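Below is how a single chain appears once it has passed through the pipeline. First comes the sequence as given, then the structure the pipeline wrote out for it. We keep one example in the README because the format questions we get most often are answered faster by looking than by reading.
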Amino acid sequence: MIERHHVGTRLSEASVHGGIIHLAGQVAERDPEAGIEGQTREVLGHVERLLAECGSGKARLLSVQVFLADIADIGAMNAVWDDWVVPGHAPPRATVQAALADPRWRIEVVAVAARA
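Resulting structure:
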């Protein structure tokens, strides 16, 4: 069985199958004009909220992909990430520079986690 959460016309925010949670790319929605620190905090908050809704948490992340509009933001993004990630449970992660769909977005995060 596949569970889908927050289903829209184009995408679902999350899907769960076989005990694995897949999140859609999460972006800053409340304040897309915020700097990289603010956007990173917001985006990681979305990830944490969706994981909780699906019966998991950030300590159960299996992998994370981070897309930055400007790779020069990696230091500031990492500072927020380091405060957020559960010590001893840092997931495998890739971070790349990418042209994001909205030019106001500085960061987009895709995550996969195990259900608790």
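The radius of gyration is 14 Å.

See the next section for the split statistics.
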